[in-house]
Amino acid sequence: MVLTIDIDGLLEEVGEFGKYQKLYIFFLGLSLLFTASSTMSFVFTTGDMNYRCLINGCDSASETEVEYWPIWLNRTVPFDYDDHRLAKCLQYVRHNPDAINKTNKHIFQCEDSDFNKSLSVQCDEFVFESGGETTIVSAFNIFCKNNKWKLTIVGSLNNIGQFFSLPISGFLSDKYGRKNIIIIGSVLAATCGILRGLSINYTMFLILEFFDAFFSGGVYSATFIMGIGLVGTKQRVFASTVLSAYYPIGEALVGILFWYVQDWRKFLIFLNLPGLCFALAYTIIPESVRWMITAGKTNEAIEELKYIAKYNGKKLSEESLKKLEMFKSTNEKEIEIEEMTKRRTTSCSSQQAFKRAMTSKRIILRVINCSFCWMINTLIYYGLSMSSGSIVGNRYGNYILCSLVEIPALFLVIKIMNNCGRRESQCATLLVCSSLCISIAFVPKHAVILNVLLYLIGKFSITISFVILYMYTAEMFPTEIRHSLLGICSMFGRLGSMVAPQTPLLVTYFGELSPLLLFSGSALLSGLLALLFPETLNKKMPDTVLEAEQIGNSTS
I want to staple 246 with a disulfide (CB 3.0 to 4.6 A). Which of 29, 97, 198, 455 is the partner? Predict the structure, then answer.
């Protein structure tokens, strides 16, 4: 006879969403708040700056601060019709450059007659706007369009770091626990972030950008899994929504901080210093009870369940306590959690569970489809976030607004998922996003309000889709390898976010409509493929591979 235990039933006994879970989710949310700094800080550290050519014979080298917008500027610099502004890197050729008075810098030669306006050359000295923001553009001399790839590659490298991190952190999390990944990853990411603010060259900055993302890559998914794993079935959607709301708040705080400091070095140091405090979390955040039971750490799980029951004003039943006590004297490798008695396995190790999952056609196809859905969601979500500064006016305000619009979307998702189910909700939100992206592409630019409205609704819909996907992925795969498979799906999802920072270059080669057309077409395809997922609404969270295979069966 195989001993079984109902983890969801235990959580109902000790309180499925009591004071303990609420406090627990608050502390976990702080780690999600911090992950936004690792994920989105490059939007501001790599932002382009306002600069123009230094015009010899017009700009006075003896002055401590050269005027950025002098009255003679349009005589010396051509107009850039692509950017709809005076060129940043070109200047007109002088008729007689040797005639510049090099002994008396106060004698200016900036008349129309001094320049040949039919010829222009690229300059190598620049004047920056006084009081403007400073980014790596000025620190590492990354000027002009031909060097723009050096700015966009930072965002892609950030996502490459997460790409390599997610499967590794997933396996480590399943083997050593969620708590270790969250705390160690957060502290190492914060250290890399601070050192990045002290970078002495572009190469050092890129290396630290990669490792910052690498160490923080698994924190979000580990935190998410811990959060929803400690609440009952009926409270999963609400718990995941509350946890997800911390991330856009973190995104908005990133924008607010840079708006205030306006300096990339100070920004990175101030942003990452609080992350070092996660080293103290070992004494505050407990390990996941669900993970401890599936990993065979029964003694620790019993103690934690007793503490949860006491904190929530509940009591663990004698029957459940006796069943848990029996685990102490049982070979943990022979225990199956809620396994169907018709089918028996000999081991619950994560390695064997993973091998079994990879031999299941149903699970493999589910992982492939889920990975594609992740890729499309990240492409559109980050693509819209990174392009938010181009909507209207102040780029900081635009970014903050585009971040905060996620919060009402997160709470609306509770009603949508509970009323419509996971599968239909996933499909519908992606199709809505597809239609909005294609609509924006053909709305006239002068219709500013309509453009902004459609843009924000598009971000609103892809946010809902992303939250559903996180919850959906966790519900489709078993506890024993949940983080591993979530890590694989999320890893492939990073392919989409790697492409997202390159959309400005996409515009250069294929036109302004190309990113929106890409977003629309990919969202349409992914939305239709989402109909192939099994429905998990009001279904027990699978703890084993066999239970995961049974999801969607008419008899399950």
Answer: 29
